[in-house]
């Protein structure tokens, strides 16, 4: 019988089977919660039913609360109540877990009186990644099953726990076989037969483990000082020695405090951004083949791209001009694959290497489905390669360039088949970084674009659609923020302070440390390329050029902004002083907040223009690029999420005030000014 839109119950003599069916991941939305309460009521009204089992249809048991309900008015019944009702049921209820039982799903399971899992099942309480704590008894019931030490680690890291570990930790009581519905039937019968023991989790005792809680707090303060919810998870686990109802009431208060933070909103925006980017105009178009990939250029990028393809089970032909380059490429791939084996990402290295061919003969590329050019970043070089591809590539092959800045429209003109040409901009190291910009040029056909997305998906990349402009979405924003950082540096903020301020705010790495890592010559080459078109009124900081000229290119030469030991490079400091003296700049101090505000505002300015020009189709695409490729703090949700959080009108005021010192750099994008007038948001445009 149907108890709600998504929950049904089968009465089979002295047992009852409760089924949740809410695709795609059986999230515990309002109809699931209503149905479960109705099931408990039904059991209470049918005392002749002596055991029940709860299971879910489809690919997984409940993967959590329904995230789409967050931030909206709460709908009765709440999940904590539902879990309590399950636990209070006089009829024992066994839960059958399959797939990924996460968050509210595991809390439902822990509210039941026993848990059995099908092979391959995983569990976890990942709420901390969404800026909250488990809010339906998870922080109170998990310690009752596992002890506080295990629970505090699992809840503050939010990691997925594999079946074997969940069994040994006490979260799961045993294994089940068969389909979830049959497993449920067997489990309910096992309860009746006395073969499966049931008990209420909330009735179990917990021993306080202050050392484990202190250790967790110390780790979080060190590694995630800018985040709110991890420490609150520890506070909640600490309450688990209280009687269950009292503990859950106190957990609820902490949950609500976390829920109301901007960090929660940012983290949930990031969760949806990761998935929203796949919803592109080309999504429904059948792609061409993506099995055999040709990579042109065996340098760092080419080797990384080849590695990513091999790790995804694809066949790769890698070419370069001479044997020495090929040998270096092979060595790099070999080392990459060793790393993947070590990290558990690859089982059989020989199998991967067996799918790799390397050659200096470009004719070997005639059979490949997709060609990815990763040669030297120079237009003439790329045009020569693409002109040659007309002769070599099979008809229908997709011709992709991995350029980071160059105009894909111009590259496409070098071939007689511009419709097959696109950009696939990977990030170094290409087999590790999750972002890939899929650059759709003027002539790129929808089928070609769809094939680029299909390949990126096989490589398990987060693929974001970008139009053509200098630097596409990510590097164009990077250039703008780097300028903002350089201006602050010249005006008096030590670059070490700029890096430290941004890192303390949650950025993975400050801009100067990023430059040292990537090599200062990359931006130098770009500045030289753009020198001819640079408007005279543009403010220009010379010091990075001086460093490059002196051979300080960053880590690869031993020094850049910083020395090897991490202290500022004296050559950088003296170049800066000389430039200030020459330009008559009296250095002033900047607070850390001001640094973060200017950096973020510059980023928002450029991000707004990129959306305004439809280089990115939606604001959330820009956010995804920054989040997944540029170390933007996840809890801030991305630059355009931040624009909404700050508000268009205050942003316009802020930019106008910065413009008093530099009218050329600080200009309010039209779209922001319009939004300030109309009280609009970027979220409305997603
Ligand atoms: N709510 C709503 N939609 C969800 C969802 C959720 N919890 N989880 C996934 N989806 C959607 C997702 O947006 C996508 O939609 C589709 O399902 C498939 O997801 C009280 C408050 C389960 C491991 O954090 O980790 O419980 O894009 O593409 O790779 O304490 O989704 O197709 O339209 O990711 O197979 C805690 C989040 C919630 C789990 C499946 N739970 N989800 O991965 O598919 S908070 C989570 C995941 C909570 C309580 C608290 C993964 C997955 P669309 P997918 P997948």
Average pLDDT value? 96
Q: Which word captures the global form?
A: globular
Just name the CATH architecture of the largest domain: Alpha-Beta Complex
Q: What's the total count of β strands?
A: 17
Termini Cα gap = 40 Å
What CATH calls the topology of the largest domain is 2-enoyl-CoA Hydratase, Chain A, domain 1
Structural class category: alpha/beta
Number of helices: 28
Q: Low-confidence parts lasting 5 or more residues at pLDDT below 50?
A: none
The biggest beta sheet reads: 8 strands, mixed
Strand content: 5-15%
Broad CATH class of the largest domain: Alpha Beta
Indicate the radius of gyration in whole angstroms: 28 Å
Residue share in helices? 40-55%
How do the strands line up in the largest sheet? 12-11-10-13-14-15-16-17
Name the bound molecules. Answer: (2S,3S)-3-hydroxy-2-methylbutanoyl-COA
- Fourth CATH level, the homologous superfamily of the largest domain: 2-enoyl-CoA Hydratase, Chain A, domain 1
Number of domains: 3
Describe this structure in words.
With 686 residues, the protein is α/β, with parallel strands linked by helices. The protein folds into 3 domains: 7-260, 2-enoyl-CoA Hydratase, Chain A, domain 1, CATH 3.90.226.10; 292-466, Rossmann fold; 474-615 and 647-685, Orthogonal Bundle (N-(1-d-carboxylethyl)-l-norvaline Dehydrogenase, domain 2). It contains 28 helices and 17 strands. It has an 8-stranded mixed beta sheet with strand order 12-11-10-13-14-15-16-17, with helices on both faces. It starts with 6 loop residues before the first strand and ends in an 8-residue tail after the last helix. Bound molecules: (2S,3S)-3-hydroxy-2-methylbutanoyl-COA. Residues 24-25, 27, 63-68, 79, 100, 102-104, 107, 126-127, 130, 132, 134-136, 138, 275 line the site of (2S,3S)-3-hydroxy-2-methylbutanoyl-COA. Keywords: Fatty acid metabolism, Isomerase, Lipid degradation, Lipid metabolism, Lyase, Multifunctional enzyme, NAD, Oxidoreductase, Peroxisome. It comes from Thetidibacter halocola. Pfam families: 3HCDH, 3HCDH_N, ECH_1.
């Amino acid at each position: 019988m149907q108890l709600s839109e998504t929950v049904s119950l089968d009465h089979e003599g002295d047992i009852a089977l409760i089924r949740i069916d809410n695709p795609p991941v059986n999230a515990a939305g309002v109809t699931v919660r209503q149905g479960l309460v109705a099931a408990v009521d039904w059991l209470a009204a049918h005392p002749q039913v002596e055991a029940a089992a709860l299971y879910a249809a489809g690919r997984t048991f409940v993967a959590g609360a329904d995230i789409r309900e967050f931030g909206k008015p709460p709908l009765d019944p709440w999940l904590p109540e539902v879990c309590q009702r399950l636990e209070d049921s006089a009829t024992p209820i066994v839960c059958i877990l399959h797939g990924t039982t996460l968050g509210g799903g595991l809390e439902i399971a822990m509210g039941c009186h026993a848990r059995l899992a099908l092979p391959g099942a995983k569990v976890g309480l990942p709420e901390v990644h969404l800026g909250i704590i488990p809010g339906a008894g998870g922080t109170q019931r998990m310690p009752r099953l596992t002890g506080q030490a295990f629970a505090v680690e699992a809840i503050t890291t939010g990691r997925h726990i594999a079946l074997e570990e969940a069994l040994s930790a006490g979260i799961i009581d045993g294994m089940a076989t068969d389909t979830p519905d049959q497993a449920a039937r067997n489990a309910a019968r096992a309860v009746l037969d006395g073969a499966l023991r049931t008990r209420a989790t909330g009735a179990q005792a917990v021993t306080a483990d202050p050392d484990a809680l202190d250790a967790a707090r110390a780790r979080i303060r060190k590694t995630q000082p800018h985040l709110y919810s991890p420490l609150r998870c520890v506070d909640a686990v600490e309450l688990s020695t209280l009687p269950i109802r009292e503990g859950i009431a106190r957990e609820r208060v902490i949950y609500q405090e976390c829920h109301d933070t901007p960090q929660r909103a940012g983290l949930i925006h990031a969760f949806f951004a990761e998935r929203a980017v796949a919803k592109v105009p080309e999504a429904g178009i059948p792609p061409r083949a993506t099995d055999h990939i040709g990579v042109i250029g065996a340098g760092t990028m080419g080797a990384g791209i080849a590695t990513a393809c091999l790790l995804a089970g694809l066949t790769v032909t890698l070419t370069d001009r001479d044997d020495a380059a090929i040998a270096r490429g092979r060595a790099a791939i070999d080392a990459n694959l060793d790393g993947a084996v070590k990290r558990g990402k690859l089982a059989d290295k020989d199998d991967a290497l067996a799918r790799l061919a390397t050659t200096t003969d470009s004719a070997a590329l005639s059979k490949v489905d997709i060609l990815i050019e990763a040669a030297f970043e120079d237009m003439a070089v790329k045009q020569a390669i693409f002109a040659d591809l007309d002769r070599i590539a099979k008809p229908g092959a997709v011709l992709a360039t991995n350029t980071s800045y160059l105009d894909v429209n111009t590259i496409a003109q070098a071939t007689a088949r511009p419709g097959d040409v696109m950009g696939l901009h990977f990030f170094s190291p290409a087999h590790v970084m999750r972002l890939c910009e899929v650059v759709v040029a003027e002539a790129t056909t929808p089928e070609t674009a769809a094939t680029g997305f299909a390949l990126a998906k096989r490589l398990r990349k987060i693929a974001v659609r970008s139009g053509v402009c200098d630097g596409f979405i990510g590097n164009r924003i990077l250039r703008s923020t780097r300028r903002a950082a350089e201006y602050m540096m010249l005006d008096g903020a030590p670059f070490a302070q700029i890096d430290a301020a941004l890192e303390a705010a949650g950025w993975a790495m400050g801009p100067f440390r990023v430059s040292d890592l990537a090599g200062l010559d990359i931006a130098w080459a770009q500045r030289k390329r753009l020198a001819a078109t640079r408007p005279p009124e543009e403010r220009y900081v010379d010091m990075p050029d001086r460093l490059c000229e002196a051979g300080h290119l960053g880590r690869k030469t031993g020094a850049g902004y910083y020395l090897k030991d991490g202290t500022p490079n004296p050559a950088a400091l003296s170049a800066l002083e000389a430039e200030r003296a020459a330009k008559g700049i009296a250095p002033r101090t900047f607070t850390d907040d001001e640094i973060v505000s200017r950096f973020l505002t510059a980023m928002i300015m450029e991000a707004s223009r990129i959306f305004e020009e439809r280089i990115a189709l939606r604001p959330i695409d820009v956010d995804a690029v920054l989040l997944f490729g540029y170390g933007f703090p996840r809890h801030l949700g991305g630059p355009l999420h931040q624009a909404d959080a700050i508000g268009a009108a205050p942003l316009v005021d802020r930019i106008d005030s910065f413009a008093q010192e530099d009218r050329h750099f600080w200009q309010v994008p039209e779209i922001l000014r319009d939004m300030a007038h109309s009280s609009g948001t970027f979220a409305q445009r997603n």
